[in-house]
Write a structure and sequence with these properties.
Layout: H1 7-14, H2 18-26, H3 46-60, H4 65-76, H5 82-116, H6 127-132, H7 139-145, E1 167-174, H8 179-190, E2 195-201, E3 206-211, H9 218-227, E4 231-235
Antiparallel strand pairs: 1-3, 1-4, 2-3
């Protein structure tokens, strides 16, 4: 493969889009080549393509961008030990195991909801709708109530504690690389007891949360974001 590739050619070789390369450059994961004095295109070498492939493979294994940056630092450190990388992989595997267990519980709850559905007839007789509406007394409703929740979750959001005032906190998040990541964080944070509204933006890499501080703390919200596989690098 020839060196001196344009960004579009480098993207093609790495199997990503041009915007992905620019995003990695903004995050400091790859170095943007200097523009030639002639003002022509920047050129990328084989090493950049290899680095992009490394980043993509690590992302597919579930590593966040912050964790990938640490792996890249270890990769470039001649004094680094294989045990350091193994430790990172073990931590990530434990995180994946927790997510798998949660998904298995969710799947079981959904299976019960589907099994209880008559599969036809008037919508008012639909047991799945009953369960999602929180109606009691049906197998479907009981299945929904047993669906797993993160620590601190509650089936219903309680009213604001007497005398409390809701607050808005902004969390700067590391590790999002698509709108789907933002939606995942938004769903988990919104499910926390005491959260009135959560809005997460991939573009700004931020989460804005309206919450009752007497019911849920900023530390708990930070933990919820970490639980979804991302990191809070600043909050205000």
């Amino acid at each position: 493969m020839a060196t001196g590739m344009t960004i579009s050619r480098a993207a093609e070789q790495a199997g990503v889009g041009v915007e992905t390369i620019r995003f990695y450059e903004r995050r400091g994961l790859i170095k943007q080549p200097a523009r030639p004095r002639s003002g022509s295109y920047r050129f990328y070498d084989d090493g950049v393509v290899e680095r992009i492939r490394f980043i993509r493979q690590a992302q597919e294994l579930g590593f966040s961008l912050r964790e990938i940056a640490e792996l890249l630092s270890l990769r470039a450190d001649p004094g680094a030990d294989c045990g350091d990388v193994r430790t990172q992989a073990v931590i990530k595997r434990e995180e994946v195991d927790r997510k798998i267990a949660q998904l298995q519980h969710i799947r079981a709850a959904l299976s019960e909801l589907i099994a209880s559905c008559p599969g036809g007839g008037a919508l008012r007789a639909c047991t799945i709708i009953d369960a999602l509406n929180g109606r009691k007394g049906t197998t479907a409703a009981r299945s929904a109530s047993r669906a797993p929740r993160s620590p601190g979750d509650s089936p219903d959001q309680p009213p604001a504690a007497k005398g409390s005032k809701v607050r808005t906190a902004t969390f700067k998040i590391d590790g999002m690389y698509c709108d789907g990541c933002a939606r995942t964080i938004e769903a988990l944070v919104s499910s926390e007891t005491g959260v009135r509204k959560a809005t997460v933006s991939f573009k700004t890499q931020e989460a804005r949360v309206l919450f009752d501080p007497l019911v849920v703390s900023e530390d708990r919200l930070t933990a919820a974001i970490h639980q979804s596989g991302y990191s809070v690098i600043a909050r205000s």
